[in-house]
Amino acid sequence: MARTVLVTGGNRGIGLAIAQAFAAQGDRVAVTHRGSAVPDGLFGVKCDITDSAAVDAAFTEVEKELGPVEVVVANAGITDDTLLLRMSDEQFERVVDTNLTGAFRVAKRASSKMLRAKWGRIIFISSVVGLYGGPGQVNYAASKAGLVGMARSITRELGTRNITANVVAPGFIETEMTAVLPDARKAEIIKAVPAGRLASVDEVAAAVTFLAGDSAAYISGAVLPVDGGLGMGH
Ligand code: NDP
């Protein structure tokens, strides 16, 4: 059955691969962007997820065009790495406001319509770093770990209404976010990953479409790693 799907930050990177995977299976797919072009076949809405009013307006626009959002993927995220002692309050707060509070804004706005429909799928894109930690990533890891508590609390609140909330925790994926890593750091990461490579964006998208499907109805509050074995034991 075709669903209405909204992917934040679906204009590029992992979010775009997720959006395209849903579109390929016949869903109606909207993506948020902050002014960039959006590929054909996807419905683009402008939205900065640090702004609750913008999130509300984006959902309203999607609802008008494609119907109520049944599957929401909170994917938009940023890094702003530096060591703890050098990290400013502003650097910490900006990353948390985007990655964690942004996901909250999106999940909250989506859930009212999901409750009415008595069906919904909320998927948060976290990171292996959320539970594994990362040097220079106190802000990022804290924001990504917070998504786990959020998904599990939503699961406890909305579980009886056929609404699931899950976390996908990618390892290191080939995108613009990892393109900025120095080669030596990249080589170090690859050495630590049992699979011995980075992942493709499509490998993350496959986990997301699985969790959004009818066959995943009994999976909620879960953390699904797509990390080549890097974070085993989470
Ligand atoms: P990119 O840097 O390639 O893309 C980030 C996306 O987030 C863009 O679409 C960007 O929009 C959007 N975004 C950032 N800030 C905001 C904001 N305030 N409001 C709305 N949209 C915003 O990242 P990736 O595709 O690599 O990452 C996607 C998600 O996956 C992130 O949450 C990231 O933390 C996570 N992740 C990535 C990994 C990796 O190895 N790449 C590993 C683990 C997790 P715009 O185009 O307007 O800038």
Looking at the overall shape, the CATH architecture is 3-Layer(aba) Sandwich
Radius of gyration from the CA trace? Answer: 17 Å
Taking strands numbered 1, 2, ... along the chain, how are they ordered across the largest sheet? 3-2-1-4-5-6-7
- What oligomeric arrangement do these chains adopt? single chain
Write down the overall mean pLDDT. Answer: 96
Number of helices: 8
How would you classify the helix and strand content by structural class? alpha/beta
User: Strand-residue fraction?
Assistant: 15-25%
- Catalogue the unreliable spans: none
Bound molecules: NADPH dihydro-nicotinamide-adenine-dinucleotide phosphate
What is the name of the CATH topology? Rossmann fold
Overall shape: globular
The largest sheet, given as strand count, sense and whether it forms a barrel, is:
7 strands, parallel
Number of strands: 7
The CATH H-level homologous superfamily: NAD(P)-binding Rossmann-like Domain
